[in-house]
Amino acid sequence: MEGERGDAVVPEGDLSVLLRVQARISSVLDLPTVLRRVVEAGLELTGARYGALGVVAADGRDLEQFVHVGMDAATVEAIGHLPEGKGLLGALIDDPRPIRLANLSEDPRSSGFPAGHPELRGFLGAPVRIRDKVFGNLYLATSEPGAFTERHEQLVVWLANVAGTAIENARFYDTGQRRERWLQASSDTTLRMLTGTPVEMFESIARSVLELSEADVVTVIQPAADGESLVVEVAVGAGAEELMASSYPSAGTLTKHVLETGTPVVVDSTRDRLPQPLSVYLSAVVPVGPVMVLPLVGTVTAKPRGVLMVGRLRGRRRFDDDEVDMASGFANHASIALELLEARRDQQRVLLLEDRARIARDLHDHVIQQLFAAGMGLQGVAAGLAGQEAAQVERIVGQVDEAIRQIRSSIFQLTPQRFSGQLRKAVLEAAAEVTPALGFSPDVGFSGPVDLLSDPDLTADVVAVVREGLTNIARHANASGAQVLVSGTTEQMTVTVTDDGVGLGEVGRRSGLDNIRRRAKRRSGTLSFEDRAPGTRVTWTARVG
Fold it and tell me: Can you tell me the distance from the alpha carbon of 542 to that of 545, in angstroms, rounded to the nearest whole number?
C-alpha cells in the first residue's frame, strides 16, 4: 500500500457490492446508525467474525466511543469495560496507517485479551479520516489466522474513506438537530419564566441542560452572601438530593475562576484536573468525569450571577466544542430572560408600592379625618346625655377610635419603609413574588428582632423557606388564604406558613420541600407538618448563631 492515506484499489467485479454498501451507509444521517453500518459493512466485505469502530478522543490518546458487532450481550458483559485504545488498538492511534496481521498474538504490540474475550487471530485495521483528521479506527478480526488478504485490506481502506464522508454528513446533521433543540428549549424557558419563581426557573434551566447535553448531573451554583463560599441552589440528576443546598469554600475552585473570568471551562476528568475543593463537593457525591462550567451572564452586568456545572459520569465521552457552544448560548439566553423577569417584577412592585402609597394617603387625608370628626361629634352628643344612653354613645366612640388605630396600622404597612431591615424586606418581596401564582396576597407577620438576629446566609434560607412554602400552597393546596409568620429569639429562628386549603398531600410535601428540609438540617433545625381543618401548617426552625 502506498500513500499516507492508503487509498484502495478496488478489484474488478466488486463494484456492484461496493455501490450497495456505500448506498446503505450514506442513506442515513443518524450518527450511531452510520457507525454501526460501517462496522457491519466491514464484516460483509471481508468475512470477518468480529468488528468494531473506535472513536478517538479529542486528546488523540484514547478511545471515547467503541461501537462493536459480532459479540452477544453475555460475552460483552463477561468482558466488562470496553477497550480504551491500548496495545494493538493504540498502535493505529499512534500511527494511523492500515495494519494487517496473520496472527495478532505474535505481534509484540498485542497486549492480550481480558477474561471472557473470544480468542482472535487474524486482524485488520484502518483509520477513518474526516478531512485528513483521524476520526477513529475500524477494527476487524477472525478466529482463524491468515484470514485477511491484500484484497481485504484494499476493501477496508476504501470503506474507511466512504465512512469518513458519511460520518461527516451525519455529524453536520446531528449538530443542526441539536442546535434546533437548544433553540426550542430557550424559547420554552422564556415562556415558563412568565409565571415561575427564580428557584423554579433555575430548576427548569438545569433540567433542560441535563436532557439536551445528555449529562448525568447539573447544578446551579451561586456565591453566598458572605463572599467566601458557594451554594448549590439547584441540583438535578445523579446525587441531586445530597448536592442541593450544600455549600463549600470558594477559594481555589473552578467555579470561582469562572465567576471571576466569565469564561466557560471544560475539563475531561475531574479526577485529574479539578482542584481539590471542587472534587470534595462534587466528585465525592457523584463520580463525574467530563465537566463543563458555564457562567450565567446577562446584560445588566458583566459579572456572572452564577454558574451551571454540567457533568457526565466517569468514563463517558467528553463535551465537544459544539456542545459547549450551544450550552453556553442557552445559559446566556436564560440569564437574560431571568433579568427580564426580575425587571418586570420590579416594575410591578413599584406600581404596587405607588398604589399602596396613594391608598395610604387617601386613608390618612380623608377617611381618618372623617372618622375623627364623627367621633368628636358623638362625644358632643354624649355630653348632653345621661345614664345608659351616654354610656352607649361612649362605647361607639371607643369603636371609632379602635377603627382609627387599625387604619393607622394599615397605613403604616402600606407605606414603603425606607429603613426596613434586610430580612423583613426580603421576606415581603418573596411573598409578593408568589402572589400572582396564589391569586391572593398572603398575610405576612414578624415577631421578635428578626433583622438583628439574622445574617445574610440565614436571611437567604428564610426567604427560600417562605418562597417554597407559598409556592407549594399555590400548586397543591387550592387555598383562598395563607399566613406567614417569621419569629426570632436569641436561640432560634422560626418560619410558620399556614393555609386554609385542602392540604398539600404527599406530592406537595415532597415537591420543593426537600430543599428547605436540607436547609433546616444544615442549621441544626427542624421541618414539621401539621394537618389542620382546613389547611396545613408548615413549621421550619433554624439555630441562630
Answer: 9
Domains of the chain, start order: 15-176 (3.30.450.40), 183-339 (3.30.450.40), 419-545 (3.30.565.10)
C-alpha 185/C-alpha 421 separation (Å) is 39
| C-alpha cell belonging to residue 540 | 421550619
Residue 134: how many other CB atoms lie within 10 Å: 16
pLDDT tens for 152-163 read: 999 999 999 999
The pTM score is: 0.61
- Rounded to a whole number, what is the distance in angstroms from the first to the last CA of the chain? 77
165: three-class secondary structure by DSSP: helix
Angle ∠(430,497,526) on CA atoms, nearest 5 = 105
In terms of DSSP bridges, do strands 288-295 and 265-267 run parallel, antiparallel, or are they unpaired?
Answer: antiparallel
526-531, strands of its sheet edge to edge = 443-447, 482-488, 492-499, 536-543, 526-531
In this model, does residue 226 exceed pLDDT 80?
no
Residue 270 is predicted with a pLDDT of 60
Q: Rounded to an integer, what distance in angstroms lies between the CA atom of residue 494 and that of residue 489? A: 9
- Which of 207, 204, 175, 209 minimizes the C-alpha distance to 191? 204
- Indicate if the pLDDT at residue 377 is higher than 90: no
* Nearest-angstrom CA–CA distance, 155 and 482: 75
Quote the pLDDT of residue 10.
46
Three-state DSSP string of 16-79: HHHHHHHHHHHCCCCHHHHHHHHHHHHHHHHCCCEEEEEEECCCCCCEEEEEEECCCHHHHHHH
The answer to whether 444 touches 427, Cβ cutoff 8 Å, is yes
Report CA-CA distances (Å) from 42 to 38, 85, 167: 6, 19, 15
Lowest-pLDDT range of 268-277, 313-322, 339-348, 434-443: 268-277
Task: Provide the mean pLDDT of the chain.
Answer: 80
Q: How many whole angstroms separate alpha carbon 457 and alpha carbon 225? A: 6
Helix axes 387-414, 368-383, angle to 10 degrees: 170
CB atoms within 10 A of CB 150: 11
Confidence of residue 341 (pLDDT cuts 50, 70, 90): confident
CA 214 to chain centre: 12
pLDDT in tens, 6-17: 344 445 556 778
- Cell numbers for 518, please give them: 436540607
- Residues 6 or more apart in contact with residue 62 via CB below 8 angstroms: 56, 84, 85, 93
DSSP string, 462-527: HHHHHHHHHHHIIIII--S-EEEEEEE-SSEEEEEEEE-SS--HHHHHHTTHHHHHHHHHHTT-EE
Cα torsion 272, 276, 278, 281: sign = positive
